[in-house]
Amino acid sequence: MHNFQDRSGWRQIAYSKITIFVVLVLIVIIGKATYSVYLKYSGNVDSLTREKTKLSSLESRKADLSDKINRLQTGQGTEETIRDKYGMAKEGEQMIVFVGKKDEASTSTPELKLSFWDKIKSLFSE
User: For residue range 5-26, what is the model confidence (pLDDT) as tens digits?
Assistant: First the structure.
């Protein structure tokens, strides 16, 4: 009989309002902690994606720069860069500038644009 009464005491404690309240508070605390960890994880996934994109663009830029460096290390590449960038020529060379034909449309006189008030005046003056 004592065993039966002992179990009844545990049930009273387990189903009391205070115990249920404490369990609910613990569930809320654990849920909040889990949600904050989830937010950090999703933020890290987004950050990882951005960083991978940056890494791939930096690797392509590195390849372009190494190609430019390799080209500049040759005499022909250096000469080409100097000619393009600074417009220099070797001794005895002359620079030729090609001038294209003038556009006929650009030599015609542009139409005068009338303002709003001028248009109204022209309506009444005619």
Answer: 556 677 777 778 899 999 999 9
